[in-house]
Amino acid sequence: MKSDELPTASAAPSASAAPGDHTSFRPVEGGNEMQSGEWLMVEAYAAIWIIVFGFVFFSWRRQKAIDARVEVLEGAIAKVKAGAR
Fold it and tell me: Is 27 left (phi over 0), alpha (psi -120 to 50) or beta?
């Protein structure tokens, strides 16, 4: 087959396509809604930063709770050691 004899895709939907057939291309009427790629990138970066800040914030809160618990345990250990002498 020569390169100038390549088959072309027809724009019209085939008549043999069943109503439930989702494999063929069917253009949408009034489908000119588009979003800017730059705006989508800004939204993606914002979502990532919000997730990172949330992770850091909750990790910081958990670490504060762990530090407080370790202080209580160290105090209890120090009290037991002082009583044993």
Answer: beta
Q: What is the pLDDT along the chain (85 residues), one digit of tens a residue?
A: 555 565 555 555 555 555 666 788 777 776 666 777 899 999 999 999 999 999 999 999 999 999 999 999 999 999 999 987 7
Among 64, 62, 66, residue whose Cα is nearest residue 74 = 66
Q: Which two tokens stand for residue 41?
A: 């990138």
For the chain, count helices (H), then strands (E): 1, 0
DSSP string, 18-57: -TT--SS--PPTT------HHHHHHHHHHHHHHHHHHHHH
Q: pTM for the full model?
A: 0.51
Tell me the two tokens of residue 66.
């762990």
Amino acid occupying residue 12: A
